[in-house]
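queue> holo job accepted (beta-D-glucopyranose)
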Amino acid sequence: MKISVRLVFTYIRDNMNNEFLIEEKGFDKRAIKHYEGLFCQGNGYVHVRASHEDSIYGVRQDDEYDRKPANVTLEKPRETLSKYGTFIPGVTGVHPYLKDEIINLPYPFMTEVFLNGDKVDITGNNIENYNRSLDLYSGTLTRTIEVVDKAYRVRICHERVLSMDCKHLALEKTTISLLEGKCHLGLVTGVDARVRTNGFNHLVKIETGKEADRTYLKALTNGGNTVDYRLRTAAKEMDLIPGADDSRCYYTGEKNLGGSCKEISLEKVVAITTDRDFDKFEDNTGLGYEDLKKNSDKVWAKIWDDCDIVIKGDDKTQQALRMAIYHLIRNATDDDRVAICAKGHSGEGYFGHYFWDTEINMLPFYLYEMPDKAKNLVKFRYNTLDGAIKNAKLYGYDGARYAWESSVSGEEECANWQYADNEIHVTADIVYAMINYVRMTSDQEFYKECVIPVMIETAKYWLQRMDKRKDGSLELLGVMGPDEYLPFTRNNAYTNKLVRFSLEETAKAIEKYNVPVERDFLLSVKYAAENLKGYAPLSDNERVIKQCDEFEEYADIDFGQIWTDRSKCFGNHISQEKNYRSKALKQADVLEMMMLFPHEFSTETLKANFDYYLPITTHDSSLSAYVHGLLAARLGRTEIAERFLKIVDDIDMDSNRRGAEEGVHIANFGGLWQMVVFGFAGLSYSMWDDDISIKPALPAGWKSLEFKTLYKGNKYKVTIGKDTKEIVKLS
Ligand code: BGC
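queue> job finished
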């Protein structure tokens, strides 16, 4: 039966039961930073952490300190109750220790309230009935508190959104209601530039002032960008006076609450633009908060109509998955000069750098749900090909070598040499992702204009990066595979496979499109694709692929003895030196390869590898659990898959773990989506199969699973029940 789009939409809304509303469970001071990351708002253009509107007593956002490169997985974050974060992808600058990083920009949602002269402080002991929630359906963050005193009881409600309709607008509404007694209300609302990024001040000049009906703040960054905030407000029952100081622009107001005036409502619209915007935006709509918010809500609703996944029978995963989709939507960018950083622009962790996470973990969501956004991500890598060429040169090679950690130029920004030097698989991952995009969309123009040049340049690099043996075979030495706990290995199976695939595709493209290259080059590419060392099996089990040639020689680890506190990473229990010579994986490696090339491995082989690697994998990286869960589901090992599902669900959602403090793990969110779609629903991969199909293996408690997806130009609705499955073509 064909279901109309409208009907499906209504279905989802009627059954919503506030499933899109994620509530903070009471106020816990220790969880402020976690929720700042988890409830981060964004619209693809700008992202703002969910910091409280009122600053917190004793917490400075402009603390300067030395943050040096460290092993990021195990780094102990700086102790602070709260960390602002306002990020515009592409606005970056050089940090003294961390190379080029995304800049934490002035905070647009500052609103401080004073009652009888005392500033309201969320950590104060006069706060009651705290309630804060994020409505994923519209990206709206709402906080309500009551402030109590002998003389009054006042309710303060803040609501805010970054418009999905007009992406330059940050919208905020504050309603202050006198519930009992009387009091004098004062407030200041504005934009606050007293911020630092990883302890460093990137804002070299700040200009503030007033004009006709606005106040403004302009910041010049050390990356040479200007970021311009223009603020307008409207309040019933209260006069607002524009003002500005060295680092803030604002409006102030005051009022005696009591008698006939018991409530004031303040609307704030902040227009944010930079010198790097495509459009020259001017906020001249004249619309107020409610109308602008309605327009934004409509756009969000339309996106959810396409991207939502409805699970019946598992509320926890339903919530986690919607949170995942929310953050992926929030990061969908219209700008092919940027990608998505490892923290999904929700914190300063990983410095706003782009990793292979984008191509391997996040891209599938965009391919199947928002292919125009997927295009921007793969195009970004083409746009930064020059940076990759520079990287190759610095390492002494021709061609292009993509950065392990990239920023906007594509040059290497990883401050830790062992990853920068050895984790070379990213260069092949990018080609894999580009081909994945082309196979889904048939975008031949992109293939010819962007993919072929990337393949040719990266092939030049690979040809020189390989070492030839006497028997004519080729090897990749000194490699760190996805498993970052073995840094300098020989012939990492994952890396070699991805490189072979990339070279095979390059040779095919040269021949098919008569790409004008030297004949010798083509022959070398073909030779390398055929002779780069393939899989080597374990000595006592030929089904198991060795992670690298010397894998069996590494020391065995007694996990039970060493890893005594499982709430902490394994890496915290062992010195790096010992870890680097042991058989303990940080994350999926051979299994990751099997996930990416599903058609090449039989069920028996997959099972054998799964069983071998599972007990020695620590999942210290958040990129690991979903790979295991997805493969377990595809193997029909539903119980194991469910165990992993819980881990994946909790990585950011568990407020006791506080995983989102430095920003959410957006690759894990992309992984959760993949685990549900490719694992539990068993959707075919458009990379390998022309026709859409499903092979469900739902967890025991799930009653049903339904979602819409694009597949090679058509749109489908997939519905899976306990004993039923259906794919309906919608268009
Ligand atoms: C993982 C990498 C990942 C990076 C960024 C590291 O901990 O080992 O695979 O790319 O985090 O998410």
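queue> The first strand starts at residue 21 and ends at 23.
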